[in-house]
Amino acid sequence: MTARKSQTAIFIKDLPKNVFAGFVVSLIALPLGLGLALASEAPPIAGIIPAVVGGVIVALLGGTQVTITGPGNGLVIVLLGAITALGGGDLYQGYLFTLAAVVFSGVLMILLGFLRMGRLADFFPASAIQGMLAAIGIGILAKQFHIMIGHNNEAGNILSLLFQIPAGLYALWETDSVSIVSAAIVGFLSLLIMGFYAKIRNRVVQLIPAPMWILILSIGFSYVCTWSGIPYPIEKKFLIPIPENVLSSLVFPDFGKVMEAQFMLAVLAITLIASIESLLSIKAVDKLDLGNRHSNVNKDLKALGLATTISGFIGGLNVVTVIARSSVNVNSGATNRSSNFFHAAFLVAFVLIFQEQLRKIPLSALAAILVYTGYKLATPAAIKKIASIGKEQIIIFTATVLATLTTNLIAGIAVGILVTFIIHILINKSVLLFITHLFKPNILMFREADGGNYFVSIKHFCSFMNYYKLKNKLDVISENEEVVVDFSMCSFVDHTVLEGLENYRDIFEHKGGHIELIGLDKHETNSVHPFAIRKIIPLRALKPIERYFTRRQEDLKEAAKDFKWKYVPKKKKDTLFLRNFIFFSSREIRYCYNQLGDEKNKIGVFDVEFTEGEFIAKEVIKATVMHISLPTNIPVFTLDKEGLLGLLYNLSGFDEIEIPNHPDFNRRFRLSGEDQPAISSLFSDELVLFLESNPYYHVESNSTALLILKKERLLSVKEIKRMIYFGKQLQKLLQEG
């Protein structure tokens, strides 16, 4: 069977799963689309159009597999601001001008895709992004809370709407309008459904998403009133205004303000937020994809841009990738992009077939869904999580939120970036660290000859400003590979980078690979959170190192338990036991730390910092070594790769020794020492075979102890475990010899 036929067969086989997933997602997309449009002061159908157009276009041309597209939460505040500002008091005319801005933003997104700007979201600090999303959530909640309690005409900026909530509740208590009270009751009941739906364990109930239950119950209530002869208590102005003929009521954009600065600002804001929301969602959904596939974000940006342009031309809002609906899609069994298409098809069917029923849905019910959505974007738990990362993160978050609420989203994210940069300067007490090294190459990556690991070394600093350089390197590595990322030469690592690397780690783990961070054990942090900012501190200021535990140190602690060893992280300056090895004879040892060892202190593995070279050329090196004390004396020898350190050992008076009848061993290794007969006798056939069948290690004996070194760098925990196994086996064979 050809590859094309095989793919067709898989597509047909998975078709029922994707049809079902599309149907489930459409049950959520229908109320959300209607609600998001109304929250933006656009006609309800304007929220269904982008879901339909996006579902078709992105399913055919997109670069993702299981994402769902449609109107996004993040754009509500931007679109509402654009409609209000461009309309100058006339909301409908503002909507037509905003449609033109949507068309322009779609063209810009296509351009971003061709310019390969799919990593746009990586240039923003993580806490600033969280602050922007929280501000969006607060804005949605502020506006929709009033509609939820039957007050459809409240106006003002976000802060004034927030401050009006107590007065709105008091007015609800005082009102004698049956229609307002009924709308408010529907709103509060809908909010309760959204809040407590997840706690209901009934399988039948869970088959239908909470937003669709709200629609079903709202419509059902209207029919109960009709059948029982009871007057429907909610006036028409509190119900969704669906036009009599949806298709004939489609509108087209008004390009009358394209040359005005206010219009261009709206285009930039819409494009920025749509791109960020989509890229963040794509990144998150890639982690959920059971097929472990990697999205082509630039291709998806082009598809989203084209869909947005078409949507704007026929009266719809922006098309973005949405995380919540995409998560439901994956959990419902979707396997490919066709589920996005089927979700669009079901939406068309719902709108065309159930127009009369949709007109019976109270605005307060949709508002309750959005109030809950807004709350989820700015929950106290989310804020507490950001604060746990570090005090500076809550400052960045708060500054972004306040700037966004008092100005606009572009100004808000700009303030977040500026505050982050200033905080980084204050933490490092240097602006030159960032300015002088920003455009310099600071990433070295290569595949190591022994073991085949990819080794990535970062110098100077790694923050949101240059994180893209590290991403460029990691993106060319297959996710089933082993990668070691070394920060030992990096002075400063920020929260955005560490959070981003955790995402990479998850993706690699899903696909059979592994990423391990090393070199952060000497960096200072004021938080125990794994994503906290880390800044290297001078040796004289190094406090008890346990305070700065990294994930590697936690893993070392667990590894020690596996071997029934002890783990001592603190630095140790007594390194005399290393100085009688030839390897360290010309090197200045500063200290060792992260020590794993048995209870009798006979075997130990630790990180050691030393220098080599003189004066200007002096270089600081951190490496992981193994030290084994021997119960009986053995000959002094060194074992290395052929030609690696031969000069050093020749200067020490060591002669090269060849083992008889082992030409492969003699060709690959350089064995040297003074007592040739004793060394030849020690290297038995079994020992030679063991060394030939294992990865290369530098091994040195000073008669009473062994020194084992894999590479002149810190080792990952996996590499340390392998070295411990190698060392214990080697000790056993040497003693038997």
Could you characterize the architecture of this molecule?
With 737 residues, the chain is an alpha+beta fold. A nine-stranded antiparallel sheet has the order 9-10-11-12-17-16-13-15-14. Strands 3, 4, 5, 6, 7 and 8 form a six-stranded mixed sheet that branches. The radius of gyration is 32 Å and the shape is elongated. The two termini are 58 Å apart.
List keywords for this structure.
6-stranded mixed beta sheet, elongated, 17 strands, 737 residues, alpha+beta, 54% helix, 9-stranded antiparallel beta sheet
CA-based shape: elongated
Fraction of residues in H or I helices? 40-55%
Low-confidence stretches: 643-648
User: Could you report the average pLDDT, rounded to the nearest whole number?
Assistant: 88
Find the count of extended strands (DSSP E, 2+ residues): 17
**SS element count, helices:** 29
Outline the biggest β-sheet: 9 strands, antiparallel
Strand order of the largest sheet: 9-10-11-12-17-16-13-15-14
Distance between the termini: 58 Å
Gyration radius (Cα, Å) is 32 Å
Helix/strand/pairing category = alpha+beta
Beta-strand content: 5-15%
